[in-house]
Amino acid sequence: MSTNGTEMVKDAIYQACLNLDEKKWDDWLNQCDDKFQYSVTAFSPEIGKDMKYLGLNHNELKEYFGLLPKHNTDHSPLRRHATVYSVDVDDNGKTAEAVTSFLITQEMFDGVNAPLDTGENHLFVVGKYHDKFNIDNGQAVFTKREARIHTRRLDKGSHWVF
Known about the structure:
Blueprint: H1 5-21, H2 25-30, E1 32-44, E2 49-57, H3 58-67, E3 78-89, E4 95-107, E5 121-136, E6 139-149
Parallel strand pairs: 1-6
Antiparallel strand pairs: 1-2, 3-4, 4-5, 5-6
């Protein structure tokens, strides 16, 4: 991992995408501070306000991930495609903020036991991550993530973390 703050933040964002794609929930949570806050929001032009789909802290996310196998869920894999637009490291190099554009595709299974390389891909959700980090010991640790989505119609089984 790079020692440059900007590169550490980028590495953390891209590693988070890999962990979430592979449903490595514990690995992703290990990238997050104990006081981490996560939310999914979208702007509604109909009501002229932001809507909050989900808001959980680190402990609540751990519990949430434990319940995911019990949900009636579409098991079609999600794949995150992210581009880091900006990283702003503070002057003392201890904190940072980043904005990352993302889109998530969903591989549609032809059946429950279909191999991973079959089916077609659909665009699932589009948005931007607004992340905050602490930088310490050569590592960027997430303290906050807002997944601000531009897609407001979410399909069944869409309770995966974006």
